[in-house]
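Re: that chain you flagged

S.,

Sorry for the slow reply, it's been a week of failed gels. I finally had a moment to sit down with the sequence you sent. For the record, here it is as I used it:
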Amino acid sequence: MDFVLFNQYRSYKLGILISIIGFLISIATPSYSIAAQTWTTGVSMPTARTEVAGGVLDGKIYIVGGFDESDKRTNLVEAYDPKAERWSRASSLAEPLDHTVVASQDGKLYVVGGYTGVARTPSAKLLVYDPSTDKWQELKSMPTPRGALTAGFIDGILYAVGGESSGKTLNTNEAYDPKTDKWTERQPMLTNRHHLTSSVNDGKLYAIGGRNTEKSPSVNIDKNEVYDPRLDKWTSLESMPTKRSGLSATSVDHEIYVFGGEYPFDNEPKRTFNNTEIYHVKTDSWISGPALPTARHGLAAVTINGTIYVIGGGPEAGLSYSHANEIFHTR
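Prediction finished late last night. Pasting the structure tokens below so you have them in one place:
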């Protein structure tokens, strides 16, 4: 092969290599279309509430507990049917509960932890709701009473992570098996925090944001850590762009959408966030999405068929309330 032909051959091979690399980069890069992502307003929640928890069963959204406009914690459970665009009441909790967390599994709704009683008493109770009977049942209590925690099911096991108990900020990770009605201790989270959020994606739990009130001054947190239950291991990932707590998250495909939150401390002006920040699991990267129409904290975010419903929460830091039901169309 002469020199000219060799150079042409080399250029041809290099062109193919560059094309292959470009293709690989394109399929690894988040396929976000921010222009296609829009907010609309759904039917308002009947009872204005904050510090709620939410979950999905059979295409309906259940909003559990929280504080109502009388500044009292409530045992109220309201259900929203997006297809019928109608709210209804489900059977109430046995006692008022706020700062709890909800997770769904096998057609039932699980509620774990939170605060109850006249004082801010952390709860260890695990409750399960069966929509076929409209009844709640109490299961084996969680080993560590705590509120402002997060939780999610992976392969039939419920993982309850973080939270606060009697002034102590926790990194606790406890796992519940519904088949045996037993709890076991698992590897603790890397960062102690409460008022965090999480989402389960591709068989792992992503713990995001929160706050630590044992530090002086108290701080909001931007940490993003993933738990792999198969390895019983936590890994630190790219931090969320904005430090915030009292936020909520949900997944669509390989993207985690994180909404709202607050800065509740006295060393800076107290405020709520309207941030929508999107984490791409495959590339460990964040982008900003269209802002939440109503800035708020203590809200619930859930997904049905790729559409996200962001419900309730307080528009001002501290005790404030809303009927908000804002719908985020991701595609």
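What I noticed first: Helices lie at 3-28.

Talk soon,
D.
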